Amino acid sequence: MKKYEYKKLKAGTLLGAELKEHRQIIDDYAAKGYRFVACIPTCINNNGVAFEFDLVFELDCD
After folding, report:
1. How far apart are CA 30 and CA 58, in angstroms?
2. Per-residue pLDDT tens for 40-57?
């Protein structure tokens, strides 16, 4: 059986801003035994630019 956790991540509002926060979040979940599965855009503006994401993590619960 698998357990899933979802972490919301917001991109900066500046065009071309570099996002680094995700690295620490992935490292933190990995330290708890989770595996990074996917990054799913959850909010996209009218120009097709995603600015909010869900990071998806998986844990084996056997």
Report:
1. 10
2. 999 999 988 888 999 999
